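Why do we care about 3D structure at all? Because function follows from shape, and shape follows, mostly, from sequence. That is the central idea of this module. The next example makes it concrete: a single protein chain, its amino acid sequence, and then its structure expressed as tokens.
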Amino acid sequence: MNSNKYLKYLNPLSVFDTKRTRKIFQVNPTVIPKRIEAEEIKVTIFDYSPEIFNEVHLSQATETFPFKESKNVSWINVDGIRKADVEAIAKHFGFHHLIIEDIMSVSQRPKMDEIENVLFCLLNMLYFNEQTGAVETEQISIVLGDHFIVSFQEDANRDVFNSIREKLRINHTKLRLSGADYLCYAMLDMIVDHYYSVMEKLGDRIEILEERIIRSSNTRSLAEINSLRKELIVLKRNVSPVRDLINGFIRSDSDLLEEKTTKYFKDILDHITQANELAESYRDMMMNLQDLYLSYVNLKSNDVMKVMAVVTCLLAPATVIGGIFGMNFDKIPYLHHQYGFFIAVGLMLVIPVWMVLIFRRRGWF
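And the structure:
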């Protein structure tokens, strides 16, 4: 049995996950972040044309240099970020030093820039952790140049591009017949489409939580509401700026983007706009769930107070009668009557029963 799973509930602050709050909100763009460099990198290159396809796996950044002069379209994907490797590739392919800074950045806001004959965009891929219920992010940097794309990822074990790789391995697909700008579109489209998978997982959690609150609510429900609201903040922070990123491609006059490719970026714009609207809807749902929880708590408190008020009213006649016959006077009616006690007890029982009938008739409970 994992004791840590239960020991965390002994600390009330752990229920509301304050560490997650600090991780979400502690972002200061004026402070240079310290990135933990990868121990090793994994380089995958897809060099292709309509007739030719080569898939190459490398372990050194310098081995990518010959593909700059390739007449085919080359997709150079680097898994694992190390400053020396990023600088070497950037120097050879002619990337501006500002692009290097953005690639090496941590928790950067999604953005798109056009610098020195290359188009650069940075955004986050999103994943949903089923064990922790958290939205996890992985920063990806994409540099579009003449007949090549260089992408930098943080994690070598996961991404959302497997379907793109499968299409590149097949002859005469749209990807194989198109240029590097279409590959850039396909990568951005796949990232945005995966946002919906994450939002679907969050939507399922919200639906389950809503049913739980309606059936039976407790302090854990409030903690889950708080946790889901944090994850929606992560979602909104990463999804919302992507709309400006895609607009940057649509408005760009760069020769790297063919006119026929622009309509595909407009399709991504539609998808990211819908994703933003869905994220806003989830946010509204969480506010409604919080109101529902508070209404349930108030209703439960009212029921308790109603029961206590009824009990108090039913005990009032017995209290009054007992108080009257408990007064220290020499002469009290029925004080020495042989049935005085039974008469008093009978009144203590009959009057509350009569009050209960009146309360039920009035619909008070």
